[in-house]
Amino acid sequence: MRIALDAKRMLNNGTGLGNHARILANALMRDYPAHEYQLYTPRLQERYLHELDGTFTLHMPETRLSQALHPWWRSYSITEDLLRNMVDVYHGLSNELPLNIHRSGIPAVVTIHDLIFLKHKEQYPWPDRQIYGIKTKYAVKHAQKIIAVSEETKRDLIEYYRVPEKKIHVLYQSIDQRFYKKAEEAALKSFRSQYALPEQYILNVSSFFPRKNQIKLIEAFASIKDRIPHHLVLAGGAGGMGHEIGRVIREAQLTDRVKVLTGVSNEEIPMLYQGADLFVYPALMEGFGMPVLEALVSGVPVIATRGGAIEEAAGRGSLLVDPYRSDDIATAITRAIADTDLRQRMIIAGHEHAAAMTDILFARGVMGVYESVA
Question: For residues 315 and 353, is the Cβ–Cβ distance under 8 A?
């Protein structure tokens, strides 16, 4: 098959959807090398191109006009390129498809990560909601198959868009292979020194958006800081909440106990997880929650939000909390730190849960979807 992948996020985004796309592309090229892979992007950042490991053909706008109007190219003109390159299936990896693909005869698959823009409208400006709504409605209508990254997303597709259940395939995301490699003690020590990390720390890895809920985590930590020896490390960077998070830390007089960490590279971040004693992820909403899976694979016990896609990612072995209640988060943290037997059970259960979400299984499921439509 000639498989065309929407590579905009893959070749331009450092987190979230970009990681998802790169992991899938690498797994497909590794496990199914007999197929031809074509990557389509309006622009790229070279460093992400170097994270791809396999054989593929890169396609970008060729004329000056299409380069200047690259959003139009991605939404419309790209279909001419797909036809000219005789692709057998097109996969939109981030909630959208070219807006004329239904006229091309090319079988299309779309991955829907979440419908947060519909469920929590307050999180998005009105213009963004309208654009997301138009693109998502078109994609779910005209795709031959839809890949949902969680059961919650599947339920939302059925509720909000009346998508037939048989059209949706739930395929859990996987994480990069680097998280499965245990770092040597010397490398961990050097990493701690480089970023001035404390010996014992509780970790949260997330972008700094309101729905990631770091403020409530800081409040929970403030209430128990005198009862535990740990520091709190908030790692991220993207998003507009950085200044607000810093203000809350200062007002709570936690500058010596809470560290905001930015600039950790994709190659280094597994060591950040491996050095942690506990991972806490009280996000209000997610399409899945890849940092939770990264923590489980890294052998770190997890506290996460009860319900929805985040609970699917965390599994039964994790401690689940009400993200709106700082006291509930604080209780779970103190319990996990104090009870070493519980922590060990959480680690074992986390490994077992994560074993069902490998990139091998992910790529196999996606390839099965391609074969069903091509």
Answer: yes
Q: What is the pLDDT of residue 41?
A: 97
- The angle that helices 326-338 and 214-224 make with each other, rounded to 10 degrees, is 60
Residues 44, 12 contacting (CB under 8 angstroms): yes
Q: Tell me whether domains 2-174+358-373 and 177-354 share a fold.
A: yes
**Distance in angstroms (rounded) separating the CA atoms of residues 200 and 170:** 37
Among candidate residues 277, 275, 272, the one with its CA nearest the CA of residue 343: 277
CA distance 102 to 64: 26
Each residue's pLDDT tens digit, 283-313: 998 888 899 999 999 999 999 999 989 999 9
Structure tokens at 327: 């006291």
Under CATH, which number does the domain 2-174+358-373 receive? 3.40.50.2000
Helix (H) or strand (E) holding 262: strand 258-262
DSSP E strand stretches across 299-372: 302-305, 319-321
- 3-class DSSP state for residue 224? helix
Q: How do the domains of the chain map onto residue ranges?
A: 2-174+358-373, 177-354
φ, ψ dihedrals at 94, nearest 5°: -145, 65
- Distance (Å, whole) CA 139 – CA 373: 15
Please name the fold of domain 177-354.
Rossmann fold (3.40.50)
